[in-house]
Amino acid sequence: RKEVEQDPGPFNVPEGATVAFNCTYSNSASQSFFWYRQDCRKEPKLLMSVYSSGNEDGRFTAQLNRASQYISLLIRDSKLSDSATYLCVVTLSGGSYIPTFGRGTSLIVHP
Amino acid sequence: DGGITQSPKYLFRKEGQNVTLSCEQNLNHDAMYWYRQDPGQGLRLIYYSQIVNDFQKGDIAEGYSVSREKKESFPLTVTSAQKNPTAFYLCASSIDGGEKLFFGSGTQLSVL
Fold it and tell me: Closest Cα of chain B to A8: distance in Å?
């Protein structure tokens, strides 16, 4: 089983739609969680950190479910510019704190 | 402006040749990482370093080597032992392990 798993998609949604992605992780001792956005052939950029209590940044909401070992990202009122790949990142404990990436979920927002 | 710089943007390697990818950061970050990304795939860790003069292998270190002689520099050498080097290479840094990553703009390596 992979340490961090995401549905690769693509998720194909119309403008204005609400879309949600999940990401599961296998190590229950994982400590830090992030969502990154990556455009084609560009570097990933931090979208938001994910906190235990959940957090919101404009149209984006992130949630952490430690019991079920997954994090989620909700995008409301999708824009064409939201089209990208969304990478889930989990930092595993054990002394090394190495960020581990999921393979990403592709989102395509169409007019 | 503080940031992390990778060079070159594009690099071509001949058979049997070693090539070195540069990564420099002026963020005063302790931790630095090298990732490889293949089309449609996530990022896979090649090497990481959490302190000067120390580095550790990641999941796919075979055929690669690194050095960390200075805090701000973490070059990656793709050796001739790496038989399938064509990929997008990303360097990243963080203040400390477990914190958010800052990425360079990447190097696309191709084989001639």
Answer: 9
